[in-house]
Amino acid sequence: MKRRTFDPNEPKTKVTKESFREALEIFKFVQPYTLELVIGLILLFLGSGVFMIFPWLIGKMIDVAQGTVELNISLPTIGLVLIGMLVMQGFFSYFRVVLFAKASEYGMADVRKALYLKLVTLPLVFFEKSRVGEIVSRLTADVEKLQNAFSFVLAEFIRQIIVLVVGLGFIFITTPKLALIMFLTFPIIVVGTMIFGRYIRKLSNERQKEMANTNIILTETMQSISAVKSFTNELFESGRYNNSIDTVVNISMKFARGRGAFSSFIVSVLFGGLLFIIWQGIVMVQEETITAGELVAFVSYTAILGAAIGGLGNFYTQLLSAVGATERVREILKTESEVAVREINEKANLNLLGEVEFKDVHFRYPTRDDVEVLKGINLKIPAGQKVALVGPSGAGKSTIMQLLLRFYNLESGSVVVDGKNINDYSISGYRNNIAVVPQEVLLFGGTIRENILYGRPDATEEEIIIAAKQSNSWEFITLFPEGLDTIVGERGVKLSGGQRQRIAIARAVLKNPKILLLDEATSSLDAESEKVVQEALNKLMENRTSIIIAHRLSTVREVDCIYVLDHGKIVEQGTHDELFDNVDGTYHSLAKLQFESV
Ligand SMILES: Nc1ncnc2c1ncn2[C@@H]1O[C@H](COP(=O)(O)OP(=O)(O)O)[C@@H](O)[C@H]1O
Ligand SMILES: [Mg+2]
Question: How far is the CA of 496 from the centre of ligand 2 (A)?
């Protein structure tokens, strides 16, 4: 039996009829294993039933031995029956555990897979609004709870109920008077124990909290011991610590008194009650109202019933917490994906030309709706042209790319590609036409080959090599002894910024997009790697609509059109020469600042 550990952070679940009915929806995941569950349940009933016959049989054995009861069966026969039942019991238990495990393991694996698939298909906003830790905890802790519920808690709960019902039935039929006496004393004891237990648990928590407090004082002062000394606050701090310790002692003493009272309560009341009942029973045996065997059976049943009642409370709280877990799991599953899974599967064939148009786009980030980030953006990029977005940081340049990727919904206006609102395309098919080379490239821990393949998982070895060559990566890759099989990331080689950038370009080459987004792709590189990367980028940009965000204006001199952004608006647009000639313009002053400082 697993001990219930108290977790003060766990949200309290109020179980209403509504939430309970919804919680049952999680059964959908174990539905494919209904057969296992049903057989498991039957075995559970059989096992519990057989288990409940034991005390009765033992009582009978005693009576037969004493000769109080004349039975046609001999002791060895009863012994054989007992052994037979033990074997059956073992058989039932084994298959019940395995069957329940099958339903819970497979069912919960399905829940995990469904959750994961849901998570990766959720819109970006979801991840900005929830904390990653919370999401991970749902995938692990909550599902773990459900798994426990299905594999073990639910079964135990049902078993205890069977034990309770059957046990009560047995004693009321065989020894009704004694059962009645017990029935009158027992609930008082149980309720008393529960109330007492709760009070003690509360004290124990208080003590723990106060103890944590003293530790906080301790670590705080140790960390800033020099401050304590320089302010000569040693006595002040030790006074603070002493107070806290004194509080701990006070609570601990209260806790100890509670525990003491509890154990004397248990000893006197619980065992007292039990003794009282047994004494009553013995009187009855003496009066020959019941047999000794019946008394033994009765006492055994009482002990089993006591354990069952204790267990029920425990399993009940665990079930409640599992219901709470299903709520949090279902909340994620209910959130609407941005992509239909079928659609990702097909990678929807959509071949765009790459004409991009922003029509009066207004936008606020969902997590910060007090700031209008884009205030009426208008721009039109003919297919295959290269444009640059320049302007101070925070102007909204990256935001324009995010919107083109359809990461967020617009407040008003529209983004149109090839004459069609991008919301009207299938999202995967649409995004398949776009590649991004960001400023900071994150590679997955794995081989260089896997990282390049991320651009198009079904590319051939030859295509990978071509992509590596085109992105100027091939040279440094072949310098590694393992070549494309070199592991990158934490457990492998650490690639430099420029090398990572070139891997990202190789990915883009494989993806062969119609629209290319470069968000400060070379900004964090030193001059030498910038040259190699820029070369690769220039090759990549050929025949594609390219939007380039650049910090260094020298890199965007050659583009077809430069848009200058400031505070979410396009303040100027034109070619480098046009913009530079306007001596009062923002671009002119930006450019002058940069070219002079070089
Ligand atoms: N994910 C986000 N959530 C909320 N605000 C954001 C987010 N990303 C950017 N912003 C805000 O939007 C504004 C424009 O950002 P951005 O487009 O990244 O600027 P730029 O790329 O021009 O430097 C900034 O004020 C920034 O703080
Ligand atoms: Mg940016």
Answer: 21
